[in-house]
């Protein structure tokens, strides 16, 4: 039912745009990026004075180069900075594993091993669950709401106060939009079906599913496919159709669920060592902010452009598109709120930031229900 509904609604637009979209995929992200350049960051127009120094930084990424939409945002930042500064501010990017493993990127910046990294804060919830808020928490903010909170709603200041304990500043560096709920070898129809489910999932989302009876597994991306194929795990969450298609999960787990309620609008960040940032000339700081914001915009636009086409290709290969039931979503929501209350009672940093985010989420959802949701529901109900 979900598959037919998607193809019926999207078919005409996808068919008309397929040739253009697929051709565009062969071009570099940088080629399309100038159209997204924010005011104050004119592409290719060096904005530096001749007396400013040459600076070379290293950036370690939490992502492999093959995940081009995620990794591409760091490339956008570095390329745009070279253009704006006439090549004087040069950042060399290292994929996950070349300097440090992907999940140690923040540590490398904190310790001064590299000047900066491109990473997700929820990779570091083992240090403090508060890190999860900077990227996404289950049933948190969607991508637009996350931008509003961080950029205009005081979220940046709250996060930077927390990150200062780890010797870094943060800058938005992308958002995938709400992610999918993963690939399953069998249908998941009731809350009872979660019990005993061996699923590749990490972080707070994994903790919530564990409280519902699942058995979360920590498995590296390259090992997910063979684990599904052999039945070592029953399910795995990854990102969204464009990234998921590349890894071939649909060949061994035909049921593709949505939504990924544990990642409603995950923000990726550039983290910069505080001492290195403070040493930058103000002109370079301004150039960095503009380039980072452009890279941030590019990621969401790229995912929104590529995911519909990727999903259509997956469905044409027999993938079964499913939605989590209301009962599953409601139970997960209740468990999440229990976990957040427990954390607030024992973790002052979490209590301070989550308390503000929770108030902001209620306000945003009330507003989105007025115009956005009504318009979206209508447009999704017609061809």
Describe this structure as you would to a colleague.
With 383 residues, this protein is α/β, with parallel strands linked by helices. The chain has a domain at 53-176 and 264-308: D-Maltodextrin-Binding Protein, domain 2. 51% of the residues lie in helices and 13% in strands. It has 15 helices and eleven strands. The strands form two sheets. Strands 7-6-8-5-9-11 form a six-stranded mixed beta sheet, with helices on one face. Helix 8 (203-211) links the parallel strand 6 and strand 7 (215-217).
Topology:
Elements (H helix, E strand, L loop, with lengths): L1 H24 L3 H4 L22 E7 L6 H17 L4 E6 L10 H6 L5 E4 L11 H5 L7 H10 L2 H9 L4 E8 L6 E3 L13 E3 L2 H9 L3 E3 L3 H10 L4 E2 L4 H7 L7 E4 L8 E7 H6 L2 H35 L3 E4 L2 H21 L1 H21 L3 H10 L2
Parallel strand pairs: 1-2, 1-3, 6-7, 6-8, 9-11
Antiparallel strand pairs: 3-10, 4-10, 5-8, 5-9
Helix pairs in contact: 1-12, 3-12, 6-7, 7-14, 10-12, 13-14
């Amino acid at each position: 039912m979900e598959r037919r509904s998607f193809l019926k609604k999207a078919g005409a637009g996808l068919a008309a745009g397929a040739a253009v979209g697929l051709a565009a995929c062969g071009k570099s992200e940088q080629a399309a990026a100038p159209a997204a350049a924010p005011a104050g960051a004119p592409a290719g127009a060096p904005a530096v004075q001749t007396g400013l120094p040459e600076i070379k930084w290293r950036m370690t990424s939490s992502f492999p180069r093959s995940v081009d939409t995620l990794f591409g945002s760091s490339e956008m930042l570095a390329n745009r900075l070279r253009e704006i500064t006439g090549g004087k501010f040069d950042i060399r990017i290292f994929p996950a594993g070349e300097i440090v493993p992907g999940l140690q990127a923040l540590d490398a910046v904190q310790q001064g091993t590299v000047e900066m990294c491109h990473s997700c804060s929820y990779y570091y919830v083992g240090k403090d669950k508060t890190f999860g808020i900077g990227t996404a928490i289950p049933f948190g903010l969607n991508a637009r709401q996350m931008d509003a909170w961080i950029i205009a709603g005081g979220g940046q200041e709250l996060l930077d106060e927390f990150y200062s304990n780890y010797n870094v500043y943060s800058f938005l560096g992308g958002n995938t939009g709400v992610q999918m709920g993963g690939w399953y070898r069998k249908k998941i129809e009731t809350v009872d079906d979660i019990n005993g489910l061996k699923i590749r999932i990490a972080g707070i989302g994994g903790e919530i599913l564990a409280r519902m009876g699942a058995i979360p597994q920590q498995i590296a991306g390259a090992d997910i496919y063979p684990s599904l194929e052999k039945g070592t795990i029953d399910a795995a969450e990854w990102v969204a159709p464009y990234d998921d298609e590349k890894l071939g999960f649909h060949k061994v787990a035909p049921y593709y669920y949505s939504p990924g309620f544990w990642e409603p609008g995950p923000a990726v960040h550039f983290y910069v060592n505080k001492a290195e940032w403070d040493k930058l000339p103000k002109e370079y700081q301004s150039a960095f902010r503009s380039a980072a914001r452009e890279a941030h915009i590019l990621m969401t636009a790229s995912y929104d452009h590529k995911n519909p086409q990727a999903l259509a290709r997956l469905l044409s290969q027999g993938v079964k598109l499913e939605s989590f039931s209301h009962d599953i979503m409601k139970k997960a929501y209740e468990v999440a709120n229990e976990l957040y209350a427990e954390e607030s009672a024992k973790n002052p940093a979490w209590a301070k930031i989550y308390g503000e985010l929770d108030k902001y989420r209620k306000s945003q959802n009330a507003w989105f229900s007025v115009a956005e949701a009504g318009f979206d529901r209508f447009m999704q109900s017609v061809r």
